């Protein structure tokens, strides 16, 4: 029994079958990749996991509890954090302020009317935020306006914000999309470090095969809304169905 | 100090000094000089400066900090005014119960309207608040006449019960609003040479409350609650996926903001005990939006500045008429004088809105951060040199470390 169990999930948008009969089981503390061509339903599946979309059929269980019918913030509080394809950070705020928000969320829950005690007096929050920033090599940028950072740094900050909540499951939606090769390699190293140092399960959606094969322990291939194959990376590489549906002629070395 | 860092504390001190010394600062010209009409240091206008300052500070918490543009904030101002006048009619002429009642009533009203309006964001939220405010205006104007006295407006009369006070004074007239016996309208005039400085009880009561309101707003800005509000403005999606529920935060700030508006309305009624439906009109709601943007939305002091500028224009420029203009341009040949008067009279008197509109356009186009940004640019202009020196100093001191 994995930490995340997706059973028979289906989702239609009008006449379009975005997902049908998706089954997925993610083992605790593993890295599981979901790959597939454009329009395969990867992002739809992810949206069903975090409460942005509600599937028409099937069930999504996280750690034995159903996530269906819960709001995104409630699902997050169960221990699921999500990193978006385009970094979603608080652009108007400094890096430190960005970091403090998940720290407050972790300490105080969904809502805490805390109007009087100044932020600067919240030593525990500041210490927590700084330790995560230091882990992510962002501490020297703590007073920077977050909107003015590079895309790679924004991604790094977003991951840091997710990690500050100490989630049990981290969902990554194309973390290297639109990045140069060097930045991609940095991100891979970063994710490897997170995988090795923390007790965390990672589900990653990715186009870049290089990223997938250097990180994932198991891979699910989606095509037209249904899982085609699920296996370890070595088997996926040579799988004829996968080549036909997705990798085509340009099979990775 | 007072739970503020040094910079905020200095700002608070500056505002305190400005507010306390306003009777001097706003009265720079001798009473008999030609410039005396630009003096703003009379009680009625000074009271309006601080009352609308409170209104704008509260509005800024919602609009500047949280990013929700309410187009119906005047409804809360009106509710505050009506509740205050009812307190004068039923309880006593003391301003204390009136102000408390106005804050509570507008808070409850804001809770109702906010609960529904905050289901939407952006333009839909603005339209919903506008609709509610116009609804309130129409209710006050006609439907709820027994409570609001319709288009005449709610006034205090000699027939009011005033169970804790007196229905009429010994001389048979309507009693006046007071705080512990000090009448709001009483003014001490200090004559210094040809200057006449006016110190009004009502103004200082309003000013004290405004300082308190400003202090509370600074504390909210610097608190975790304020950080969450700024985060809501910056990115709602991220906040949602960070385990935080946005609704209670927006509702809380909407109610706080509505209470500020109600406080302003209650103070208006305390200075002059009547309340009319026109206080809830959409133009009144629009005015506070202008004040906040003109001064600088999202800044601490901006809304107060904006309120001051707009009220100054409304009261000073609107009083300039063509005979005043003729005397200004008297040095010109007659034809030129007529031409100059003809052109400039469109910008003053009833046309003061035109001047305000031009000013607003200029500020929004060239200083999107409002008057506060203008001030910051000016101070940067003067500080540029010292900063370079400081940079050189720090590079020089680096090797020593």
UniProtKB/TrEMBL annotation, chain A:
<dbReference type="InterPro" id="IPR051120">
    <property type="entry name" value="ABC_AA/LPS_Transport"/>
</dbReference>
<keyword id="KW-0067">ATP-binding</keyword>
<dbReference type="InterPro" id="IPR003593">
    <property type="entry name" value="AAA+_ATPase"/>
</dbReference>
<dbReference type="GO" id="GO:0016887">
    <property type="term" value="F:ATP hydrolysis activity"/>
</dbReference>
<dbReference type="InterPro" id="IPR027417">
    <property type="entry name" value="P-loop_NTPase"/>
</dbReference>
<keyword id="KW-0547">Nucleotide-binding</keyword>
<dbReference type="InterPro" id="IPR003439">
    <property type="entry name" value="ABC_transporter-like_ATP-bd"/>
</dbReference>
<dbReference type="GO" id="GO:0005886">
    <property type="term" value="C:plasma membrane"/>
</dbReference>
<feature type="domain" description="ABC transporter">
    <location>
        <begin position="4"/>
        <end position="249"/>
    </location>
</feature>
<protein>
    <submittedName>
        <fullName>ABC transporter ATP-binding protein</fullName>
    </submittedName>
</protein>
<keyword id="KW-0813">Transport</keyword>
<dbReference type="Pfam" id="PF00005">
    <property type="entry name" value="ABC_tran"/>
</dbReference>
<dbReference type="GO" id="GO:0005524">
    <property type="term" value="F:ATP binding"/>
</dbReference>
Automatic annotation (TrEMBL), chain B:
<feature type="transmembrane region" description="Helical">
    <location>
        <begin position="94"/>
        <end position="116"/>
    </location>
</feature>
<protein>
    <recommendedName>
        <fullName>Branched-chain amino acid ABC transporter permease</fullName>
    </recommendedName>
</protein>
<dbReference type="GO" id="GO:0005886">
    <property type="term" value="C:plasma membrane"/>
</dbReference>
<dbReference type="GO" id="GO:0015658">
    <property type="term" value="F:branched-chain amino acid transmembrane transporter activity"/>
</dbReference>
<keyword id="KW-0472">Membrane</keyword>
<feature type="transmembrane region" description="Helical">
    <location>
        <begin position="248"/>
        <end position="268"/>
    </location>
</feature>
<keyword id="KW-1003">Cell membrane</keyword>
<dbReference type="Pfam" id="PF02653">
    <property type="entry name" value="BPD_transp_2"/>
</dbReference>
<dbReference type="InterPro" id="IPR001851">
    <property type="entry name" value="ABC_transp_permease"/>
</dbReference>
<feature type="transmembrane region" description="Helical">
    <location>
        <begin position="201"/>
        <end position="221"/>
    </location>
</feature>
<feature type="transmembrane region" description="Helical">
    <location>
        <begin position="46"/>
        <end position="63"/>
    </location>
</feature>
<keyword id="KW-1133">Transmembrane helix</keyword>
<keyword id="KW-0812">Transmembrane</keyword>
<feature type="transmembrane region" description="Helical">
    <location>
        <begin position="288"/>
        <end position="309"/>
    </location>
</feature>
<feature type="transmembrane region" description="Helical">
    <location>
        <begin position="352"/>
        <end position="375"/>
    </location>
</feature>
<feature type="transmembrane region" description="Helical">
    <location>
        <begin position="123"/>
        <end position="144"/>
    </location>
</feature>
<dbReference type="InterPro" id="IPR043428">
    <property type="entry name" value="LivM-like"/>
</dbReference>
<feature type="transmembrane region" description="Helical">
    <location>
        <begin position="9"/>
        <end position="26"/>
    </location>
</feature>
